[in-house]
Design goal:
The chain is an alpha+beta fold. The chain has 2 domains: 4-119, Alpha-Beta Barrel (N-terminal domain of MutM-like DNA repair proteins), CATH 3.20.190.10; 133-254, Helicase, Ruva Protein, domain 3. It contains 6 helices and 10 strands. Strands 1-6-7-5 form a 4-stranded antiparallel beta sheet, covered by helices on one side. Strands 2-3-4-8 form a 4-stranded antiparallel beta sheet, with helices on one face. It starts with a helix and ends in a 10-residue tail after the last strand.
Length: 264
């Protein structure tokens, strides 16, 4: 599931493959962009902001995209057959690389100087290389802005801080020792922010996401996805329930023993 760490890895991988290369093919399979021609442009950078990606070109133009729930970018040898299908939204090809953007959402072409227009509403990016104490304080302020809000819901709100997805939400709540339905007022906001950043940073360059520090297979998470195996700490039952308003309802995991507090 693409979360902030996955998007950062994608940006690094895409940048390493495409930067410095001139596009000899560029298909944008989106109704608003189908007539746009990017051929001849050079890729200069690939930037991630939370769950958003910007591919920058040498004419101060950027291709914005969001991985959504199922999106991905894959790199192929342009001289071999690649899995182009109805799910392919973007095709970028240089002399040495073919990059396919599959099941992407929110595609847009913007001036590089206007990127903030698309992500300016987001909270601090937890993987911002220029992260500072001011970023942390801003995220904490945003988190406690609605003290009665359920923590699990607040953590997924990208306008609070950008990068946390459903896996990290469950694991952050576990490590804070509270249920996902605990009100924000019931936790240390600063600790929640620092823990969120720590987990994403730890996984920003790992091929397999791990929140426990245990490298053994099947022990990568404390509660997420462990409804059959049980809580990694106490071995107790992991409860699975939906959380959030109807249109934004997401499944969540928690251990009632290790995470006391309100439930669904």
């Amino acid at each position: 599931m693409p979360e902030g760490d996955t998007v950062r890895q994608t940006a690094v991988r895409l940048g390493g493959a495409l930067c410095g290369g001139t596009l000899r093919r560029a298909d944008l399979r989106h109704p608003r962009l189908a007539t746009k021609d990017l051929t001849g442009r050079m890729v200069t950078a690939v930037r991630s902001v939370g769950k958003h990606l910007f591919i920058r070109f040498d004419d101060e133009l950027s291709l914005h995209n969001h991985l959504g729930m199922d999106g991905s970018w894959r790199i192929y040898d342009p001289h071999r057959r690649a899995p182009v299908s109805h799910r392919t939204r973007v095709i970028l090809e240089t002399d040495g690389v073919l990059a396919l953007g599959q099941q992407l959402v929110e595609l847009a072409l913007v001036r590089t100087a206007d990127e903030s227009r698309l992500v300016g509403h987001l909270g601090p990016d937890l993987l911002d290389p220029d992260w500072s104490a001011e970023h942390a304080a801003d995220a904490a302020r945003r988190l406690i802005r609605d003290p009665g809000r359920e923590l699990g819901v607040a953590l997924l709100d990208q306008t609070v801080m950008a990068g946390v997805g459903n896996v990290y939400k469950a694991e952050i709540c576990f490590l804070l020792g509270v249920s996902p339905w605990t009100p924000v007022s019931g936790v240390d906001a600063g600790k929640a922010v620092s823990l969120s950043r720590e987990l994403l940073l730890r996984n920003a360059s790992r091929p397999v996401r791990n929140t426990t520090g245990d490298p053994r297979r099947g022990r990568e998470t404390w509660v997420y996805g462990r409804q059959r195996a049980g809580c990694l700490r106490c071995g107790g039952r992991v409860v699975v329930a939906n959380q959030g308003a109807a249109l934004r309802e997401r499944v969540t995991y928690h251990c009632p023993h290790c995470q006391p507090g309100p439930t669904s």
